[in-house]
């Protein structure tokens, strides 16, 4: 009897690794992402040139057309520099969404 490609656990791991690799490439290319925060939708893109890993501490994003930088600190995500018009809780939510998407 012929065994299916997906029947072995080793093949499944290869498929998962390939999917993760291509998803990372798509997200690095600026795939638009959306988050709903306080009943309002926000569109953002990850504008990173290199792969995002668990060791990544700075992630550049484009939020509603504005370039911003997220910095991972001890208390979570914060905005790089001083932007007065951006809610700190929104930045935390975007950082968490990126962590979930990239499985950080």
Spatial strand order of the main sheet: 1-2-3-4-5
Please count the helical segments.
2
Counted up, domains total 1
CA radius of gyration: 17 Å
Number of extended strands: 5
Q: Tell me, what's the shape?
A: elongated
Task: Set down the secondary structure blueprint.
Blueprint: H1 9-28, E1 32-37, E2 40-46, E3 58-63, E4 66-73, E5 76-79, H2 88-102
Antiparallel strand pairs: 1-2, 2-3, 3-4, 4-5
3D architecture notes:
34% of the residues lie in helices and 30% in strands. It is of the alpha+beta class and 104 residues long. It has one domain (5-102).
Quick take:
By secondary structure, the chain is of the alpha+beta class. The chain has helices at about 10-30, 90-100, and strands spanning about 30-35, 40-45, 60-65, 65-75, 75-80.
List keywords for this structure.
104 residues, alpha+beta, 34% helix, 30% strand
């Amino acid at each position: 009897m012929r065994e299916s490609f997906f029947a072995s656990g080793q093949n499944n791991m290869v498929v998962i690794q390939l999917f993760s690799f291509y998803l990372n490439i798509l997200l690095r290319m600026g795939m638009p992402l959306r988050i709903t925060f306080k009943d309002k939708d926000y569109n953002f893109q990850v504008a990173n040139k290199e792969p995002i890993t668990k060791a990544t501490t700075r992630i550049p994003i484009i939020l509603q057309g504005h370039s911003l930088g997220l910095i991972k600190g001890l208390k979570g995500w914060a905005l790089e520099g001083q932007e007065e018009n951006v809610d700190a809780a929104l930045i935390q939510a975007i950082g968490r969404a990126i962590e979930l998407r990239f499985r950080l």
